[in-house]
Amino acid sequence: DSGVTQTPKHLITATGQRVTLRCSPRSGDLSVYWYQQSLDQGLQFLIQYYNGEERAKGNILERFSAQQFPDLHSELNLSSLELGDSALYFCASTNIGGAYNEQFFGPGTRLTVL
Amino acid sequence: AQSVTQLDSQVPVFEEAPVELRCNYSSSVSVYLFWYVQYPNQGLQLLLKYLSGSTLVKGINGFEAEFNKSQTSFHLRKPSVHISDTAEYFCAVSLYNQGGKLIFGQGTELSVKP
User: Fold this and answer.
1) B68 has a chain A CB within 8 A of its CB
2) Which of A4, A55, A100 sits opposite B32 (nearest CB)?
3) CA A8 and chain centroid, separation
4) Cβ–Cβ of B42/A31 closer than 8 Å?
């Protein structure tokens, strides 16, 4: 158990809908990363937050947004969903978000868009 | 642009045999190197990392990796594998000056047969 929790574990929804994925980092970790894992794109970095502020952005679509709250949990919002958004979404956390730090991954949320 | 290439998508091997999973990277800036393992239906777990110093790095579960700067490689090895090592293995880099986002290879599926 990494100490990172993600809810829900599975999510099935229809095209055009909006969903919210939730991540609670390890106790004491200030930085949260979101990644998308799909069969065609592999594991891709989406976005990073540090202590409530956006720090880095990767290949995140405009239909996707995220935020980190004062209690340090983070949410990834996916809207106008398309079939291609079906994937496993991971969050990871580290204490200060340095490039040398080990990232601790949650179990993921599997999103299926029908 | 930075990239990570894992040269084998699948590696079948018999139990107690040695294994090497190959990883090459390309980057114009200094990087830190990581190997993560993903067991079925789980998140990623760090096996080992190279930050600096000795080019031979030892990790958990008997794995080790060697950093070769001239060949820009970071191959993962284990002298004797077990059935329980069956999993997907990901090589990743983080860039020295970019906050810790991980750039992953496509993954290598290690299948250990009895």
Assistant:
1) no
2) A100
3) 12
4) no
Rounded Cα distance, B81 and A69, in Å: 43
Burial A90-104 (b: 16+ CB within 10 A, else e): bbbbbeebebebebb
Q: Kindly report which listed range (A35-49, B46-60, B95-109) carries the lowest average pLDDT score.
A: B95-109
A108 to chain B: which residues are within 8 Å by CB?
43
Q: Which of B36, B49, B102 is closest, CB to CB, to A45? A: B102
Identity of the amino acid at A56: A
The conformation of residue B81, written as its DSSP 8-state character, comes to -
Per-residue burial over B33-52, b if 16 or more Cβ lie within 10 Å, else e, is bbbbbbeeeebbbbbbbbee
Q: Three-class SS of residue A8?
A: coil
- Decide if A92 contacts A32 (C-beta within 8 A): yes
Measured CA to CA, the distance from residue B25 to residue B29 in angstroms comes to: 11
Distance from CA of B46 to the nearest CA of A (A): 7
At B58-97, the pLDDT tens digits run 999 999 999 999 999 999 999 999 999 999 999 999 987 7
Indicate yes or no: CB of B94 within 8 angstroms of CB of A58: no
Is residue A44 less than 8 Å (CB to CB) from chain B? Answer: yes
